Amino acid sequence: QVQLVESGGxxxxxxxxxxxxxxxxxxxxxxxxxxxFRQAPGKEREGVxxxxxxxTPAYEDSMKGRFTISKDNTDNTVYLxxxxxxxxxxxxxxxxxxxxxxxxxxxxxxxxxxxxxxxxVTVS
Length: 124
Hints:
0% of the residues lie in helices and 48% in strands. By secondary structure, the protein is mostly beta strands. A hairpin with a 6-residue loop joins strand 4 (32-39) and strand 5.
């Protein structure tokens, strides 16, 4: 059983930065894609970034250049560095895991088997 715990959310001013962390139980990085999704009130859950078993990152087009995903295999943690935050980035951010390749497209969240509880990011 995989367990994911997010942290690092909070309130920040426009243009600020935050780093989110996703701590995963067990040695999962050799088998799973780990991804970040977000969901704003009244909107669909959307992919943000993902990193695969060999540390290859992938990003939704709108996140490229501002967000960076990374993974530390020594402590089973995946990070999401978010820079130049805008009010439209306000959302609950979730960490998710799935076996096999990463996916971030439309409705991709349905492909992920494991989810954390989420961490709120508010930009004003």
